[in-house]
Amino acid sequence: MTLSADSHGLAELLRERQPCVVLTGAGVSTESGIPDFRSPQGLWAQFDPFEYGSIAAFRADPAKVWRFYAPRFAVLTEAEPNAAHRALARLEHAGLVRAVITQNIDLLHERAGSRDVVEVHRSIRTSRCPGCGTSYPLARVLELLEEEDAPACPECGAILKPDVVFFGELLPAEAIDRAFELAREAALLLVVGSALEVHPVAGLPLETLETGGEVAIVNRGPTELDARATLKVDGTAGEVLAAVADQLAGGY
Predict the structure, then answer these.
(1) Which tens digit of pLDDT belongs to each residue from 26-55?
(2) Is the pTM of this model over 0.90?
(3) Whole-number Å distance between alpha carbons of 123 and 205
(4) Please, which residues have CB within 8 angstroms of residue 233's CB and are 6 or more apart in sequence?
């Protein structure tokens, strides 16, 4: 693939500024057919997040929340990693990406082959029973969803809660602490597919800048930190990152 000037500049930054840590948002997964939440066309433009995506809403009416989430679970499980996920995995295998911090819950980085993935919003990997505490893997939850709209715990009958962070819940302490540690240690923080609007994760680039590192951004549209980035590429994550990986990661 021929590199554009922006892709070439990003490749040079990755080569020169190590270690590199990557922060990904919904703009990476939209190329796999997964709708985002916060854009003007996103889910929260159509649905009230506090009615369908908050822990208070789940506790009040878990079946209603599952009627919203069940078809989206199907989309998430049927989606395949795209060129951006694969490129980041190749760059990690080539020793050019230390870790991927992701706001996404879809497991696509892991499925593409990334080995060090920090899931700050957790993921759909498991769901847990709020009654007895039993944890169920995704495959079992999907089996239960085939039987009923709201999967009930086979042990006690309570409706399961996906192990993703709802509005009103704290981020997992271990994941967010590691994300901030990685950001502080990064010579380059590469932001991909995020407008940097959701805190505290949006503050990670500031941690890198304050410890002397640089920030590069690949995103469709503006972000909160464009003015402070060493390089901003307004482009498609898959196309840009695939070109960079082709140059730097060779046969990985």
Answers:
(1) 999 999 988 765 444 444 344 455 576 789
(2) yes
(3) 22
(4) 6, 7, 10, 216, 217, 218, 219, 240
**Amino acid, res. 204:** L
Domain ranges across the chain:
1-34+81-121+171-252, 37-78+123-164
Q: State the CATH class of domain 37-78+123-164.
A: alpha beta
**Which of the following is catalytic: 8, 93, 121, 199?**
121
The answer to whether 121 is a known catalytic residue is: yes
What are 113-145's pLDDT values in tens digits? 999 999 999 999 999 999 999 999 999 999 999
User: Domain 1-34+81-121+171-252 carries which CATH code?
Assistant: 3.40.50.1220
Starting at the edge strand found earlier in the chain, the sheet holding 188-192 runs 117-119, 99-102, 20-24, 188-192, 214-218, 231-233
